[in-house]
Amino acid sequence: MPGVYVFELYSDDGSQLYIDGSLVVDNDGIHPGISRRGRVKLGTGIHPVEIRYFQGPRHAIALQWFYQPPNGSRQIVPPDVIYHPGEPQIPDALKKLQQRLKRVQEE
């Protein structure tokens, strides 16, 4: 769906999100767990995404990636919207886990 998307990275320590080669979220630096957001207008189609992350000297580790589609609600980016060329959209192990979870929920 084309439109303006809001992306968010929650991390302890630095993280950055690039979409189509442009920096969208800059949460860089050594810091406790914090969130930073950015907006980007996206058209229909596939958009290259890169997340850069590093862990500083502390013991806490965190990295979460959220998005809010146009007219939608904030959510963790689900694996089914991530595509890696030459790879299945959802790895077989994850697909099996999703099927098992669905069966458990139906019982």
Average the pLDDT over all residues and give the rounded result: 87
Largest sheet: 4 strands, antiparallel
| Low-confidence segments | none
Spatial order of strands in the largest sheet: 4-1-6-7
- The SS-based structural class is mainly beta
* Number of DSSP-assigned strands: 7
User: How many domains comprise the coordinates?
Assistant: 2
Description:
With 107 residues, this protein is mostly beta strands. The chain folds into two domains: 3-76, no CATH class; 82-107. The chain contains one helix and seven strands, in the order βββββββα. β2 and β3 form a beta hairpin. The longest helix is centred in the last third of the chain and has 15 residues, at 92-106. The chain is globular. The chain starts with a strand and ends with a helix. The relative contact order is 0.23.
What secondary-structure arrangement, pairings included, does this model have?
Layout: E1 3-12, E2 15-19, E3 22-27, E4 34-42, E5 49-53, E6 62-68, E7 75-76, H1 92-106
Antiparallel strand pairs: 1-4, 1-6, 2-3, 2-5, 6-7
Provide keyphrases for this structure.
single chain; 107 residues; mainly beta; 2 domains; 4-stranded antiparallel sheet; 3-stranded antiparallel sheet; 7 strands; 14% helix; globular
